[in-house]
Prior knowledge:
Blueprint: E1 20-21, E2 40-45, E3 48-52, E4 64-67, E5 73-76, E6 97-100, E7 117-121, H1 125-128, E8 132-135, H2 143-151, E9 173-176, E10 183-185, E11 189-192, E12 197-202, E13 211-215, E14 220-224, H3 241-252, E15 258-261, H4 269-281, H5 291-300, E16 303-306
Parallel strand pairs: 5-6, 6-7, 7-10, 11-16, 14-15
Antiparallel strand pairs: 1-9, 2-3, 3-4, 4-5, 8-9, 11-12, 12-13, 13-14
Helix pairs in contact: 3-4, 3-5
Residues 1, 103, 105, 206, 225 line the site of zinc ion.
Amino acid sequence: MQAGLPEPHRPVVGANGTLRPRANRVPVVIDLPVADPWFVCSRVGDGITLVSEPHVHPLLRCNVWHVQGREFDLVVDTSLGLAPLRHLVDRQLAAGILAVATHSHSDHIGGLDEFTDRAAHRDEVAELAKPVLNFLESAVYGETVLGPYRRAGYVIPELFIDAVPPGGLQATIIERGPVPVTRVLDEGDIVDLGDRSFEVLHLPGHSPGSIGLWEAATGVLFAGDAAYDGPLLDELEGSDVDAYVSTMHRLRSLPVTVVHGGHERSFGRDRLIEICDHYLGHNPGVTGGMVERAKIGHESGRRSARYG
Ligand SMILES: [Zn+2]
């Protein structure tokens, strides 16, 4: 969910996807216990598995969702990237895995370079084509990120991890190369796994190209950072409150059975409506001028695409 990061935000870095300490900083010894395994997997029903990083603070702990399909598997977001991820979701598939980034914030795309097939919304493509830094020290984050968490009662620690993955970490700032997408997604596109399909919902506000993946047949929604059961961030670089209001109106009317968000626990429709109403109640003067456009797009923008 992070953005609005300190300067320099986008340094020149080396090899694509390489995880390494920032070159101009003296490596530090991170004196924390090793967590092995780093990731914890849990089945949540409907053929969906949650891959989580329990030793990462909730602010940066991105939920990774793995959906098994008959012809393709789907991975929604790819963690902070402090440890290899792909082996957790690999199966003996004839085809492969499509990794979808719900948006380009660095806590969601850490492991994206591990996947051959990568997709994101058109409005996030340019960001994914740039190098990026992950900051593990809370002191470098601004109030636009930390403030909502503090006000919600979260403790903000010095470091956003309380353990290190096997092999350790040599720096609290991690730099990555670009991870360009191989597939561009738009509103209404269908991600077809063979026996189940997810519709791309463009849900801007948190970021310009935030998306949800909506399976009408089951009522499952992967919502990314558009909606999760925690402090929502709308003051980041690229955020847009007006668009977020539209997104909340749209989500409020969606007949979901379960929402799997980009962070925190999953929830049902009643909680989704509470989250939407809470946001809308804090932005009473905002009209959300994109509501009509979003509805129109939802009805007419459908395209089918198969990945592999
Ligand atoms: Zn985000």
